Amino acid sequence: MCVGKVAVKKEDLQKYHGKDTWFQLQPVSADSEVQGKVHLELRLSEVITDSGVISHKLATRVLECQGLPIVNGQCDPYAAVSLLGPSRSEAKKTKVKRKTNNPQFEEVFYFEVTRPLSYTKRQFDVEEEDVDKLALRVDLWNASNLKFGDEFLGGVRVPLRVLGQAGVHDAWYFLQPRENGGKSVKVDDLGSLRLNIVYTEDHVFPSEHYTPLRDLLLHSANVEPVSASTAHTLGEVCREKQEAAIPLVRLFLHYGKIVPFISAIAHAEINRTQDPNTIFRGNSLTSKCIDETMKLAGMHYLQVTLKPIIDEICTEHKPCEIDPVKLKESENLETNRENLRHYVDRIFNVITTSGVRCPTVMCDIFFSLRESAATRFQVDQDVRYTAVSSFIFLRFFAPAILSPNLFHLRPHHPDPATSRTLTLISKTIQTLGSLAKSKSANFKESYMAAFYDYFNEQKYADAVKNFLDLISTSGKWDQKSIETPIMLKEGFMIKRAQGRNRFGMKNFKKRWFRLTNHEFTYHRTKGEGALCSIPIENILAVERLEEESFKMKNMFQVIQPERALYIQANNCVEARDWIDILTKVSQCNRKRLSTYHPSAYLNGHWLCCKLSADTAPGCTPCTGGLPANIQLDVDGDRETERIYSLFSTYMTKLIKMQEACGSKSVYDGPEQEEYSTFVIDDPQETYKTLKQIISAVQTLEQQHTKYKRDKFKKTKIGSQEHPIGDKSFQCYIRQQSESSTYSI
């Protein structure tokens, strides 16, 4: 049952933007729920009757309708046309148009307009007093086969004074609700609804209009200090950092500059942080930008990683309550703990083994965070991990587990019992990922501290660190000179000799393989020097090798510029793991192959395609492995327009920030309280940027003003694009009056 509704007109949305507002619920009735528009043509003509009396007839032509609502799966519309006056109400109907909500009527109806006896005063004009009392009513109905009668679709009331001196009126009208159509209900009886409305309307110019502001924004990562950059300034003047982060992240992602920008602002924030335990704890511009990047770039990663297990939890409904106070009589505490532990273990494993699927752009950002944090706090050995885990666990995986519907993992919010299970899992995963020294102290509830004892094993901390190492490895191998090598995977496998002596089983040797983010090596045994080293940038592809090549299972190939290294893993799972992680670390290599040979080169030819040249191009497309980056449907000009709108909205704060720069440059004394909220590291550089921002914003402001002025001049109210509505009727009358005056 529908209790009531809240309806806000489009022209009023801007008044409520960004505000919590209580709205009274309005009654809902079929007569008030209308949509669509109708095209009418009215013509008043003079007719001389047989008796010689002059009368006037109104010809009403109903041409067509567009966008009528579909009622109960059908729309069979017809129009009812009435001439309304103090002492008359004549009604006529069009034919019913079947199965269309865009009917073409093209029907004309005639009504005689009664004239007073004093008509000789104006022989050719209809007197205003008479016309003012008449109106045309056109109602659209759906011809229903139900016993309840036809359904009202909307209507319009057109006063005949719109005919003016010309006696002709041709216009489109928005359909309106029927007057007093609903039941008599006291509004106070229905209650009220609190809404927070966010409304944006963008008028986007051609790209060249945004060049000055866009160039300032995209140059932000190169400004020294970064706090004096245009993008950072936007974060300083906006009321909420999130306001600035959303368009900034989308703009920088679109132009491929998100990593250097976030690296620059993160490095500056880390250098301002005094305690490594408080790193990225606040809602800073850096935190919000990384959050937004993860939402955009990491959504597919989140779906692939968590959706299957979240679906399972929501479907199974296993009891997992471990608070003795909330335990139901039919439940067993130990059984519930075991259920919860099983789910936590499952989710922990899918997360910590998902590093190979983490998007490259996120890995590059995490690499930057790790390096900046490790450089700033060299004594703290764990800060390189906590800087990354504070985002990937605390702000990415944990919230997605807690509210899967908000991350498109589930269509609806889970039921209370399942929501409670997800809350307990999210808390545990968050703590496991935090690598805190005293984890039991992280829980206020004693039952959570007791439950967490199950996970107080070194293997969990090691798994988290290995995962964080992998996702904070830069895909850009030009970073390798400054990056400390990180061991990603190692173990025994069997490899085939790469030298000239390629024949015989004796050339398959068991070796110890070791992969870092710099190189892939193999050794005679663990701890010995490398027999062979393959730089990561030399890995052109990593693909499976067909079993027929050597009659051996679980084989794969690491393809290099000169030859391929053939390797046999111990089982199919291990083979998949090695292929995934090798693909992950080499996916950004500049010369990656698009095709490969799925079989080996033996006895002078490739077994797959039979070509004899060992340098022949591959015959099969590479599987592609993982996407090197995320392609987003972003309009760079629209995001720049939104940033302009924010700067325009907060222009007074930009000017205040200019004053703060002047104050800081001139006076060495205590900073004024009204200026203390701004981060200004270099007053002169910041002032220079502010001046450029204000100039670019003012130029765009002038262009918007000109556009609105020109648009108003060109707008024809009553056209198909701008139908006459409830509020635009007076504007139409004024526009017609101005047009007539101009013609005279």
Automatic annotation (TrEMBL):
<dbReference type="Pfam" id="PF00169">
    <property type="entry name" value="PH"/>
</dbReference>
<dbReference type="GO" id="GO:0002574">
    <property type="term" value="P:thrombocyte differentiation"/>
</dbReference>
<protein>
    <submittedName>
        <fullName>RAS p21 protein activator 3</fullName>
    </submittedName>
</protein>
<feature type="domain" description="PH">
    <location>
        <begin position="486"/>
        <end position="587"/>
    </location>
</feature>
<dbReference type="InterPro" id="IPR001936">
    <property type="entry name" value="RasGAP_dom"/>
</dbReference>
<dbReference type="InterPro" id="IPR008936">
    <property type="entry name" value="Rho_GTPase_activation_prot"/>
</dbReference>
<dbReference type="InterPro" id="IPR035892">
    <property type="entry name" value="C2_domain_sf"/>
</dbReference>
<dbReference type="InterPro" id="IPR001562">
    <property type="entry name" value="Znf_Btk_motif"/>
</dbReference>
<dbReference type="InterPro" id="IPR039360">
    <property type="entry name" value="Ras_GTPase"/>
</dbReference>
<keyword id="KW-0677">Repeat</keyword>
<dbReference type="Pfam" id="PF00616">
    <property type="entry name" value="RasGAP"/>
</dbReference>
<dbReference type="InterPro" id="IPR001849">
    <property type="entry name" value="PH_domain"/>
</dbReference>
<dbReference type="GO" id="GO:0046580">
    <property type="term" value="P:negative regulation of Ras protein signal transduction"/>
</dbReference>
<dbReference type="GO" id="GO:0008270">
    <property type="term" value="F:zinc ion binding"/>
</dbReference>
<dbReference type="InterPro" id="IPR037774">
    <property type="entry name" value="RASA3_PH"/>
</dbReference>
<keyword id="KW-0863">Zinc-finger</keyword>
<dbReference type="Pfam" id="PF00779">
    <property type="entry name" value="BTK"/>
</dbReference>
<feature type="domain" description="Ras-GAP">
    <location>
        <begin position="240"/>
        <end position="434"/>
    </location>
</feature>
<keyword id="KW-0479">Metal-binding</keyword>
<dbReference type="GO" id="GO:0072554">
    <property type="term" value="P:blood vessel lumenization"/>
</dbReference>
<keyword id="KW-0597">Phosphoprotein</keyword>
<dbReference type="Pfam" id="PF00168">
    <property type="entry name" value="C2"/>
</dbReference>
<keyword id="KW-0862">Zinc</keyword>
<dbReference type="GO" id="GO:0035556">
    <property type="term" value="P:intracellular signal transduction"/>
</dbReference>
<feature type="domain" description="C2">
    <location>
        <begin position="34"/>
        <end position="173"/>
    </location>
</feature>
<dbReference type="InterPro" id="IPR011993">
    <property type="entry name" value="PH-like_dom_sf"/>
</dbReference>
<dbReference type="InterPro" id="IPR023152">
    <property type="entry name" value="RasGAP_CS"/>
</dbReference>
<dbReference type="GO" id="GO:0043363">
    <property type="term" value="P:nucleate erythrocyte differentiation"/>
</dbReference>
<keyword id="KW-0007">Acetylation</keyword>
<keyword id="KW-0343">GTPase activation</keyword>
<dbReference type="GO" id="GO:0005096">
    <property type="term" value="F:GTPase activator activity"/>
</dbReference>
<dbReference type="InterPro" id="IPR000008">
    <property type="entry name" value="C2_dom"/>
</dbReference>
